[in-house]
Design a protein that fits this description.
Largest sheet: 12 strands, mixed
Helix content: 10-25%
Number of domains: 1
Number of helices: 3
Order of helices and strands: EEEEEEHEEEHHEEE
Radius of gyration: 20 Å
Structural class: mainly beta
Strand content: over 45%
Shape: globular
Strand order of the largest sheet: 7-8-9-10-11-1-2-3-4-5-6-12
Distance between the termini: 16 Å
């Protein structure tokens, strides 16, 4: 199984699928959908690019997710196991498995531990690259009822992050002030939906493991803000980040993750099962 553990700055984090079976196969009521992540930046002339595209199926507390395409800025398809692989989620996303039909194998996929390993690797090269975060302020706000998206009424919550990052590379220092606003739109009717690639709950798990700037204040404020947010999978997420360097140069980036084309479906129970002849392998560690 080919798995690339990507650099955190390129992980945007960052899911899903339809199947046809014979009528004799046991089925359950479920839903299929697609999702897409798009971004645009003043650095690229506000040209919109697709960072990730996928499709998924969920029924009850189980889900199956396929990454159809991922741009290099999101780590590429190899970051998610390679072509033909897919994810199975059990018990509302508490258990996550990466399945590789090509190798007839599967592994338990722990995104939080993966990011903890990445954090250790980055901090291990502190002699070459030093990063410091200061002037941190993170807040969460309940914005009340949100817009109706694809026919689903939504609940709107917002997180605002402000901080300054000072980076020192080979003795040269640069400072950037960033202001980031993330708007989440949750559809209560889709409360069974599980997709860790767009879930703010999964983002919380990853942030709780990452300490990229050795700043407990950032980590604690992030945890406190996330505790106030609705837990689950937002049907739409819009993040606007404005960064200004010490020379006054400003860059604005807008990233949108949206789930769409929801359709009811009769889902074979085998959709969420691991074939009996597949072998369990260990997830690579950093």
């Amino acid at each position: 199984m080919r798995v690339s553990l990507i650099r955190p700055a390129r992980f945007a984090a960052v899911a899903a699928l339809p199947i046809v079976f014979a009528a004799a196969v046991p089925v359950a009521d479920g839903t299929t959908y697609e999702f897409v992540m798009k971004s645009q930046s003043t650095q690229t002339g506000n040209k919109e690019t697709v960072s990730m595209r996928g499709r998924g199926t969920f029924s009850g507390d189980d889900a199956r997710i396929e990454i159809i395409d991922a741009a290099s800025s999101a780590g590429g398809a190899e970051a998610f196991g390679g072509k033909g692989t897919y994810f199975i989620l059990k018990d509302g996303g508490k258990e996550m498995l990466l399945v590789d039909p090509n190798q007839k194998s599967y592994m338990k996929w722990d995104m939080a531990n993966m990011f903890a390993g990445i954090s250790k690797v980055v901090n291990a090269v502190g002699g070459l690259v030093k990063m410091k975060m200061s002037d941190v302020k993170i807040e969460a706000h309940d914005m009340g009822a949100g817009e109706t998206i694809h026919g689903y009424p939504t609940k709107h919550v917002r997180m605002v992050q402000n901080y300054t990052v000072t980076a020192s590379v080979f003795g040269r220092t640069s400072k950037t002030r960033s202001e980031s606003t993330t708007d989440y739109y949750f559809a209560p009717a889709l409360n069974k939906l599980a997709n860790p690639f767009v879930s703010n709950s999964q983002a919380l798990a990853m942030m709780s493991q990452m300490d990229m700037f050795n700043n407990p204040d950032y980590k604690n404020q992030m945890l406190a803000a996330n505790a106030k947010l609705h837990k689950g999978v937002p049907i739409k997420t819009v993040t606007t980040t404005v960064s200004v360097d010490e020379k006054g140069k400003k860059e604005t980036m807008v990233t949108t993750m949206e789930m769409l084309n929801f359709k009811p479906a009769s889902v074979p129970t085998s959709t969420f099962a691991i074939p009996g002849d597949y072998k369990l392998i260990e997830m690579p560690s950093l």
